[in-house]
Design brief:
single chain; about 290 residues; Rossmann fold; Dihydrodipicolinate Reductase, domain 2; 6-stranded parallel beta sheet; 5-stranded mixed beta sheet; 11 strands; about 40% helix; about 25% strand
Length: about 290
């Protein structure tokens, strides 16, 4: 069966996990892993038989076989990579909070992005919480949404830590532009507990039309949609209403493809990216 060849820029934990997810994708085929040094991730990809390079973005941009690219570097790096990849005619899935292209949360708005060539995967917290914010807003009209993403300190590498400011800003913006809330705020907590905790996300909303049954049904429907590509996405505390205030808690357990299962924060953004890319690749192949 024909597949669309994919390249990854950034051979760290996120890039390595993406590689394993691509290996079991329906419409994608792993082609090349690129970085800027001879890292463990580069060696890992080479050991699996894939092309590798330490020439970074140029190696992927200049590879004529690669049609879809995952940029798993940093927000500042992606802003430099984006025009190079666009000039090369690649479709890009941006794993950083750079937000060069439109935000995408697959279960909410991918179908609306028919002309995009650079898809921003928001943040791990965004992928975990925006679907619930959207589910609440579509039936109850949210005036304000606040989320708190708590994740294991061990699952936050140097890239995540370097992008903390962008994380809060990008997640907050997505809660409005995709989630539909009038106002929003995002908070991230790195928890050093041992053993490492699973990713926990609290979504708090003030709504104009509080109705517990309707909100619960909408949230449960959205959880099922996310579970189609993130099986470890669990509703730990169903919607609780206190007047016009709604509280929901979501836990995310990773699939364990490459990363530990407690790294649900990294797993969910990768799983979302692969789900979206698989859909785009299917469109390209004419199989969807």
């Amino acid at each position: 069966m024909e597949k669309i060849k994919a390249g990854i820029i950034g051979p760290g934990n996120i890039g390595s996990d993406l590689m394993y997810k691509i290996m079991r994708s329906k419409n994608l085929q792993m082609r090349i892993m690129a970085g800027i040094v001879e890292s463990e991730g580069i060696k890992r990809a080479a050991g699996l038989g894939f092309a590798t390079s330490t020439e970074g973005v140029l190696a992927v941009a200049e590879d004529p076989e690669v049609q879809i690219v995952f940029d798993a570097t940093s927000a500042s790096a992606h802003k430099k990579h984006a025009p190079i990849l666009k000039e090369a005619g690649k479709i890009v899935f941006d794993m950083t909070p750079a937000a060069v292209g439109p935000f995408v949360v697959p279960c909410v708005n991918l179908d609306q992005l028919t002309e995009a060539d650079n898809f921003n995967m928001v943040t791990c917290g965004g992928q975990a919480t925006v679907p619930i914010a959207y589910a609440i807003n579509r039936v109850a009209d949210s005036e304000y949404t606040e989320i708190v993403s708590s994740l294991a300190s061990k699952s936050a590498g140097p890239g995540t830590r370097a992008n903390i400011d962008e994380f809060t800003e990008t997640t907050s913006e997505a809660l409005r532009t995709i989630g539909g809330s009038d106002r929003s705020k995002a908070i991230i907590i790195l928890n050093p507990a041992e053993p490492p905790i699973m990713m926990m996300n609290t979504i708090f909303a003030i709504v104009k039309n509080p109705d517990e049954k309707t909100i619960r049904e909408s949230v449960e429907d959205m959880v099922r949609r996310v579970q189609q590509y993130v099986p470890g996405y669990q509703l730990r505390v169903p919607p609780i209403l206190d007047g016009n205030k709604v509280t929901v808690i979501i836990q995310v357990e990773g699939a364990g493809d490459f990363l530990p299962r407690y790294s649900g924060n990294l797993d969910i953004i990768n799983a979302a990216a692969i789900s979206a890319a698989d859909e785009i690749a299917g469109r390209m192949l004419g199989v969807n």
